[in-house]
Amino acid sequence: VVTSDNGPHVEGGHDPAWFGSAGGLRGVKRDLYEGGIRVPAIVRWPARVPAGRVVDHVSANWDWLPTLCEAAGEPVQEASDGLSMIAALTGEGEQADHPHLYWEFPGRGGRQAVRRGDYKAVRYDVTRNPGSRPELYHLSSDPAEADDLSRERPDLADELGDLMSASRTPSERFPLQRRR
Length: 180
Description:
Blueprint: H1 34-37, H2 64-72, H3 86-90, E1 101-105, E2 111-116, E3 119-124, E4 135-138, H4 154-167
Antiparallel strand pairs: 1-2, 2-3, 3-4
């Protein structure tokens, strides 16, 4: 398995536009736009994953632990939000889907994102505006997240904003909001 945990970075003067590393997607490392979190994965598993197979299953890096455990015939030893991707990779059986995916980044003012189906909501500057309406994107028609639909679909933006809040596990080590 070859993959990454984030999109291109700008640290040290790197220019992500130089090689088109984000593939036309908005954002870089530490962003929760697709350019910061959507990454490719290459899997080679002779006799199980057909050569040239392309899979568009929506997943996250936390799915690798249950996937590799299943491949090794071992149980997952700890609680995990991940789902095995063996069915998607091999084309055998029914692949389970996440009801939604949630991300957060505690730095840079706090950032949150949630994806449910083709819709993704993104909220930045959570420290100053913890309950603000998130931006809303329809990823299948707008993978570059250029058209914020939150004004056209405020009901859905608010619903996904509530889902963000419900998905978050508070952490003393990684607070999203300033302590009062």
